[in-house]
Fold this sequence. Notes:
Layout: E1 9-12, E2 15-18, E3 56-66, E4 69-77, E5 83-92, E6 98-104, H1 116-123, E7 127-130, E8 146-148, E9 151-154, E10 163-168, E11 173-186, E12 191-194, E13 196-197, E14 217-221, E15 238-243, E16 246-251, E17 264-269, H2 272-280, E18 287-295, E19 301-302, E20 307-312, E21 316-319, E22 322-323, E23 339-344, E24 350-356, E25 358-359, E26 362-363, H3 367-376, E27 381-385, E28 393-395, E29 404-405, E30 420-426, E31 433-439, E32 443-445, E33 449-450, E34 453-458, E35 463-464, E36 472-475, E37 480-483, E38 486-489, E39 493-501, E40 504-513, E41 518-523, E42 527-529, E43 535-537, E44 540-544, E45 549-551, E46 557-562, E47 564-569, E48 572-578, E49 584-591, E50 594-601, E51 605-609, E52 618-622, E53 628-635, E54 644-651, E55 660-666, E56 672-674, E57 680-688, E58 693-699, E59 705-711, E60 717-725, E61 735-744, E62 755-766, H4 769-772, E63 780-784, E64 789-792, E65 795-798, E66 804-806, E67 809-812, H5 814-821, E68 824-828, E69 833-838, E70 841-846, E71 851-854, E72 857-860, E73 866-868, E74 871-875, H6 876-882, ...
Amino acid sequence: MVSQGKTLKSTTSGVGKKWLIITLAGVIWVGPLLSSGIPVIGNLSTSSVAYAASTSAKKLGEEIITSGAVLMKYQYINSTGAKSLANVVRVDLNNKYVKLDVMTGQGNKFTTRQSTGGMAKENGAVAAINGDFFNTGSEGAPMGAQVSNGLLMSTPSDLKGMYAFGVTNDGTPILDEFAFSGGITAENGASFPLAGMNKTSYAPEGTGATYSHANSAYIYTSAWKAVERPKNSSTTPTEVMVKDGVITDISVMAGLPTAIPEGSYILRTHGAAAEFVKKNLAVGQKLEANYALVSKKSGKELDPSTLQMMIGGHTILVDNGKATSFSRNVNSIGGSRARTAVGYSKDGRYAYLIATESNDNSKGMTLQQLQDFMTKVGVWKGMNLDGGGSTTMVNRPLAEMNTQLTFNTEYGTTQRSIVNSLGVFSTAPQGSLKGLKVSGSNTLLIGQIGTYELKGYDTYYNPIEAGSIKPTWKSSNGNLAVNGQSIKATKPGASTLTAVSGSTKATMQVKVLGANDLVALTTGVSSAPLQAGTSVSVPVTAVTSNGQSLEVPSSALKWEFIGFEGSVKDGRLTVSSVNGNTKVGYAIARYDGFSTVVILSAAGESTWENFENVNYPVKFTTNVPAVTGTAAIKNGSGAKASSKVLNLTYDMTGGLGQKMYAYAELNGTTGKVIPAQATAMTIDVEGDNSLNWLRAELQDNNGKTVYVDLAKAIDWSGWKTLNLDLSGHNIAFPAQMKRLYVVNVEEGQDERALTGAVSFDDIRFTMPSLSGNEGLPTGKAVMTIGQKSLMLNGSKVAIDSAPILKNGTTYVPIKHVLDAFGGQATWNQSAQRVGVLRGGMFMELTVGKKEFTLNGKRSSAAVAPMVQGGRTLVPLRLVSEQLGLKVKWDKNTKTVTIES
């Protein structure tokens, strides 16, 4: 681990101590809020549910990280049969070549934040998980204690049931609830107790105090980067600067306007503590500081110099190899979420760093399920660390130099910035070459050229220079084409890639992704003007089933143009001419048969609302009376300083513990009309980094309420443009935009800010139907099961194939619907695939398959197209509703009514 900076000497029982520069990580709300915004705890709920039902933890794989550290992947099946994925880094505490330590923020400073991966890179960790809880609304410092290399850097807060995990210098793990005991002694012998070190403001529990910093003395070291110590303390400080044990400055009733220099510390006092300073301290005098950690269970003092490290956490989870009662209220961190935990084995040999997944591949775990899982993998005693959106694990693959994200977080590949993390460090010397490994991507797209090389690892499983080896490459089949050092993916499927150098060889499994491995195919633009000369960039990105996004090589795409003549070259779509009477054109791109589309129309994207001349009311509303806020049109800020914007402020502190909404309601309960079919929405949003959920509420022409996620988490500050695909929401237009709003749900509420402000501007919709639907027929068609005719706007029209009813589903040749309401169909005989185009929609269905694609996104239906009597029949309701048509079924007359 890198050097932690200058130190401050202190004494306890005659033993010299040091104050180290480092931080902790986490997030916590501990109950109802005081007016200061600091939460306090209510009645403790100490129960936990024992999971004695049929649950299991199956190891899926294991890989060595470094000597003494192994990454293990598990599948956990809970009592309902739901599956979750969990990752465990097991560290051998008896191995002298590996150790645990705590990393923090940026540059190892409090009041800064950084991702777990960023900290690992900065400090050279080979693996890491996110760490301690912290208050997201404060500067960024841990709630619990932190020790590194025997140096105390942060003290425990006066909060009940908050545990800490540590490892002694001889490799013995400990897990206990600790308190802090310390004091300062003036040159005249007078003394005053210390309340803590490097702490944010909070509400103590069980002390009778309302504010943590009232009538108290705290030490702040140069590890605290911010000038204010701390913010929102509801107290006015008297501060004393101390260097090398001598007072160099005193500021009465005001904080010293400076950051703390290396090698110095500030004694921050208020009330009775400030009176002590006034009566007993003066510039030039000596000042001593003493401290100790005290076990709340045994009452014994713990000398930090005997510790290798310590990190704070939340409730205890496992004791004596069994799930134990929670040590504090866990209501605010309930539900099925991603989870992080740490513990150790019965014999004390192993430490377990645990992170469970909550993403597209994993359900997440409740705390009770986490307890059960921990006991199944060998944890004897363990505690909870910060979880949910903070849960992150990184590891360094064998023979690689850098760590990588072990699994997708709740935000995909984005890692939350936190205040500290628990790292695994190799202390081994460089060993001799032990083995070689093929390094490169284990997945490729068709047409993609992979970069592969041989890398070496030493006897301690750390990367080592393997020399400029140019191996001979071989593929087990034709899925990969090998040409010297170039490996190109040619067709879907798995291959074994083998590197041979002399008598040495190494292999790697490489999968070439096909259509079945994708969930979406997106283009850089979803719409473009339908006119000769149009030229737009159309990079295509494939989204895999595990959430990975990959740029598709141009050579792997096949383009089809409907309604115009054009070409795609070097990723640019160019329109050379438009067919006569064409209102809407389609540029269809296919990767291994999986399709996406660019809609071309005269309308393109149009501004729907820029808030410059609003002539309808805007109002703040909420679902919880205790939630307050405002919604108003006002002058913008930053990049929007010269514009008017819709500003939404909210204060949810009064509604803690329940789902809360802060709405900006548009035009009363009526909303503002979106006049025609829209396939995409673009909106500029000024974020507040609150991590709250941002949504829009629409009501479509059928009266259905549609919720559009603008952002799962507001994880940015300043202005940002959001692009939303509306094609999969099945919105019947015209529709009404009712509300824009912020959501703070119960689960993970401890991680999100309760107060904030967001602004909206320049809402645009892509409405190909503004021009494309002008020529589309409207009206009503009535079809009867078994009859080769339909009634279209009151007139009888013959059709060559009658609708049929099978297992409660009506099937028709789609041609009849499109003849009546406009649009066109395509048929691919070899692929047995039906394509349906109408307005801004492009849908493809395959005979016998329930999955279909709509504007580049894979979805699943209850029924599939079928072939009967030589005709291809599609599920009427599924296709019609996707095209924006209304469908009604009358079981008495066995008629289907379709309206546009």
